[in-house]
Amino acid sequence: MNERTGCMKSTLSIATAILLAGCSGTEPARLRVSMTVDKTVVAVDDSVRVSLNLVNASRRTIRVLSSDAYDACYDAFEVYDAQGRQGLMSALCIFAASAVPGSALLAPGETLAIEDWWRLAWTRFDEQPISPGTYHIRGRAVSEERDFRTDLRQIVVTN
Q1: Residues contacting residue 119 through CB under 8 Å, at least 6 positions apart
Q2: Where does 21-122 show beta strands of DSSP type E?
């Protein structure tokens, strides 16, 4: 390797490191979110229990939506049909002073468990009720800075 090639490799390494740092932000995985579902095959008139586990993987306290806000006013998940359309849940959220969702503080290393229910009968795609087929679900947790999502999981809906 000559001096010029070594210099180019060094410059390329520095440029790549800067580019990756710019893409990932200051701390890319501050909040780790994992999801489990109790069923991957479900009837149209049934429900799926969605469990999220949030872990603060940063060195600072993070403010997140409290666990009791989910299933009441916010969904801890997103559902998509085979065409990639996001389903809308038709739940009623009453914003009385005492019912306004609160927040929770997660200290470094602390975890928060969230339970929510996907009620298939409440789900609409372009104002149409859910029908048998393959759907995708992913967990979603809300923090003070942004939403965090899990990978998509497949759910098969039957009659």
Answers
A1: 47, 89, 91
A2: 31-37, 41-43, 47-56, 62-65, 77-80, 88-89, 103-106, 111-119
Give the whole-angstrom CA distance, residue 132 versus residue 21. Answer: 44
Closest CA to 72 of 36, 115, 111, 33: 115
Helix runs in the chain, H state only: 3-24
CA distance 80 to 89: 12
Report phi then psi at 117, rounded to 5.
-125, 130
pTM here is 0.77
Provide CB contacts within 8 A for 96, sequence distance 6+: none
pLDDT digits (tens, 9 = 90+) for 126-142: 999 999 999 999 999 99
